[in-house]
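Lecture 7 notes. Example A: sequence first, then its structure tokens.
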Amino acid sequence: MFVDMPEADLRQYRSSQSDPSDFDSFWAETLASTRRFDLAVEVIPVDTGLKTLDVFDVTFSGYEGQRVKAWLRVPHDATGPLATIVQFQGYGGGRARPLDDLLWASAGYAHLLVDTRGQGSAWGGGGTPDPDGSGPAYPGFMTRGIDSRETYYYRRVFTDAVRAVEAARSLDVVDENRVSVLGGSQGGGITLAVAGLVEGLVGVFPRVPFLCDFPRSTVFTDSSPYKEIGNYLAVHREKAVAVHEVLPYFDGVNFSRRATAPAWFTTALMDNTCPPSTVFGAFNEYRGEKEITVWPYNGHEGGGVYDDEATLAILNGMDN
């Protein structure tokens, strides 16, 4: 069943998320601190047995120089420079195996699929630890370090993601002026963060994005992962105000207010995990050219392969 307001109302909806006056300086200082460390990109060929694609094991320096893993996939013997897609994973997943996610390289693009630190054991598989500890947290990742914007888990994740784009742009096979970012669910939220922090992207593809409109999402759905915050605050009742002072620095709504690259969102009207109003909360604030595809009869899977087909058509149109 539909889980939210009618589509006409969704298109008029505005998030109540505040926009901190020091949002930009917080992120500028975070990225400047991390950029003290050399990217130190390592690219190692992987013997996959594929004849039409080449796969490379990539490692680069993310937040505060901590090492992050990714797979780079390109057409066999490609010399570039190629239009490139940097992709971020959904909640709990990692970069998975070298033979996963072959679509974009098969279509002729360079494809960097980035690990999410500390994740990769719910599905797929990951190889990037999260060395930073945090205080008491509800099981999962949503409340790790949530007592402070400096220690919150997604500060590290979003910084890793920005550095992933920088790492991609440093590669000879990549055309630094033709880089797009893509992700679904958590990956969609990371994609929006990158769109708000990185200049010169040619395309932004947030599919059923997570990490949006926290004032609504933390009270509107009983589904995880948003529910992790509610469960945490049910125990730590005294921290509700403080937590909602931290979350605006990591909300897709506020990154959308700063993003100018063309964007193609998706949402689904039966999505309990990322309710459509929370997606529209970010979409309606997005500053750049934008479109949104609404899937009326789908849940958190969104458009699935239909979204792949649409994205590929958009990318091919840019490339011609």
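Example B, a different protein, same format:
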Amino acid sequence: MPAPLAAHQLDQLQHDLRALQDMRTSPHAFSSAARGHADLLAALPPRYGEVLLGLLDRLEAGALFTEESCSFSHQGVVDSLQLWVDKARGVLMG
């Protein structure tokens, strides 16, 4: 059973990711909120934190582009974030 706060933070991250997908929040706002989920990151193996921070860095850097470019795909990063959330949920649920 996952720690209640970590599970809540994962649910919040999923909610925020949906808002990002629907363009109801900015990449920077999403990234800032995601970086604040310390209990979630503490409940996961260290590699999960490294991967999430790397994805958030890519998301923030990519926010400088107004359209998809050959070197950056906003949708690709969002898809990778969703995969991260799905895998994190699997780890937390044991």
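Note on Example B: Helices lie at 4-21, 27-35, 38-43, 46-62, 74-93. The mean pLDDT is 91.
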